[in-house]
Structure formats: C-alpha cells, structure tokens
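Section 3.1: Structural characterization of target chains.
Under the original work plan, the team committed to producing a structural model for every single-chain target entering the pipeline before any wet-lab resources were allocated. The record below documents one such target. The sequence was received from the expression subgroup and is listed exactly as submitted; it comprises 173 residues.
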Amino acid sequence: MDALSCIDQCFIADSMLEELPAPSSVGKTKVGGIDLNKARMRWVVEALIALCCASASPQGFTASELARQVRLLSNQAESDYGPRRAAYDLKKLRAKNIVQRITQTRRYQSTASGLRAMVALVVLRNKAIKPLLAAAQRRRKSRGAQNPRPIDKHYETIRTAMQGVFDELGLAA
C-alpha cells in the first residue's frame, strides 16, 4: 500500500536533488553518488520502483532480485549486471535514505519518501524533460499532430514557454 501511495503523491525536495550526485557514506564505507544521467542508475531506479510496486510485501527484496529486474529492463547478461553490482547500487541508495535494509536480513525495502522522490524523477525525466528536449531540437516548424490530444497542446504550451525562457537567458535551444 505504501508503494502505491508513493506513486500517487510524487515529490522531490530541492536539497535531495542537489545531494543525489554527491558521494556519501554508509557506516564507514564511502560510496559514490546517484547520477540519473547514467543509464545504469536509471535502470536501477526503475527496477526499484517496479519491485516495490509489484511486491508490496513486508519481506522486501534482495540484491539478486534487483539485479534480475535491472537485467530485464536493460537486456544485459548476468555477467554485465549481477547481484554484486546490485548490492553496491543498493548501498548508494541506502546512503541517500531511498532504501533501507530490513534488520538481520539481506533484504531491502524502500522508504516512502525515497520512493516518492524516485518516481517523481523518473516521471519528470521520461514524461516532461525528454519530450521538451526532443521538441527543442527541431530545426524546422512541424505541422503538428494530425489529431492533437489535450496533452499535445500542453506540451506545445510548455515548449513555447521554455523557448521564451531560453531566449531570455541567451541560451540556444
């Protein structure tokens, strides 16, 4: 139930967005930051969301289950992404309080605020930022959609507003 409520109420704090790429530590171990510009971390976050939504059980999930889900999303072989890499990625997520280890087990569960933040980042990246960047790359004026939906009109409004922001800041889009 927590996983489903996190999807409904997405948010990410300014401080978390700034702190994600910074290195941190779990206990005495230093770990790298979370860079969602890297495909591997995007797959890990998407796999984490899938695991938390698919099995919203109190038993959580293991590093092996996360590795299996990442391989499904990325079409990688087990030698490319195995439980050992998944354990390291989980440690990075633990350092940012996105997941937590279930005491005296090798299983993990996501925190409510961490899951909300990751869902917000994935949705913003895939549903807002990527389409806006793709629209900004157009060199010539497009005819537009043959049968525009309301979402198409919203994207066009956002694209036009972003173009104005880019012009104001002196950025080429």
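The chain has a mean pLDDT of 82.
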